[in-house]
Write the structure tokens for this entry.
Amino acid sequence: MTAAAQVKRCAWARGSEAERRYHDREWGVPVFRDRKLFEMLLLEGAQAGLSWSTILNKRAAYRRAFAGFDPARVARFGTRERNRLLRDEGIVRNRAKIAAAVDNARAFLAVQEAHGRFADFIWDFVDGQPITHRWRRPSQVPAFTPTSTAMSRELKRLGFRFVGPTICYAFMQAVGMVNDHLVGCFRHAEIAAGDRAHPR
């Protein structure tokens, strides 16, 4: 057995190479860059009702389709761009999700206008610091929390869509607002120690 095969990972990341790479390099690493936060918000909304592996496999197509996840450009998408997206086989061609992505880009810009950075606004839900959990089994990891419920409520008030409590918690996990790697996973300790990115 190779050393790579002996690495202990969270159970959900033991499937495809794309899942392992995302788990090892990105999931749970604190994100403070606004464009990256917008990317993950868009992708988590696109995932609703689907598997994360499906979205990972379409991520490059999403990057092309949504202007490199530039919220200022996405916010300007009109009827022509939306119709183009509905014909794009590389992404999830769901009219409501596409419309929500454009609406969310506009709401994202409004938050930036009010707070200077979206990161300052969103990280305030955890007082600016990642929360490190010590889950030992996948069954212990919640689908949503009071914090993600509060985030969902506020985002909806500000005009965001596809931001229910479960989507918000998945977003929090993805951008490192919570460290939900199981304690037996090699990334739990690295991220808890302040590791910002696993070596490629």
Q: What stands out?
A: The CA atoms of residues 92 and 107 lie 21 Å apart. The mean pLDDT is 93. DSSP finds twelve helices and two strands in the chain.
